[in-house]
Amino acid sequence: MIITDSGFWVALVNPNDNYHRIAVSALEKINEPLITTYPVITEVCHLLLQRRGRQFMLAFMQSYQQDAFSVYSIETADKKRLLELMQQYSDLPMDFADASLVLLAEHLGHGRILSTDKRDFHTYRWKNIQPFSNLLE
What is the CATH code of the structural domain delimited by 2-134? Predict the structure, then answer.
């Protein structure tokens, strides 16, 4: 499974986004299921509604309804780790959506991600030492 960040989804759905062609091309090359988290879905909906309007947000939600990707559910036991990550990277700062993706990488045992956020995902480490491999680069 390939981890997906908010920027990837926004670029994929929005033809005016600078990363649109890169996101479409990357998706065409990948032959694995995609996975994200509920905080990312919330962020994508907010960004699409704000930048492109209701129709783009609903198009993204239609892909969710059609099982275009899986969603990792954060468990109660994960609360401590999420806070640790957000404290560790507070200088960036790390938001809840990014922390959920680091947690997801730790759960999956890999850091293969589709993200337009090059700075943060070059900095973040899952299991505190493992770097992410951004497949949009």
Answer: 3.40.50.1010
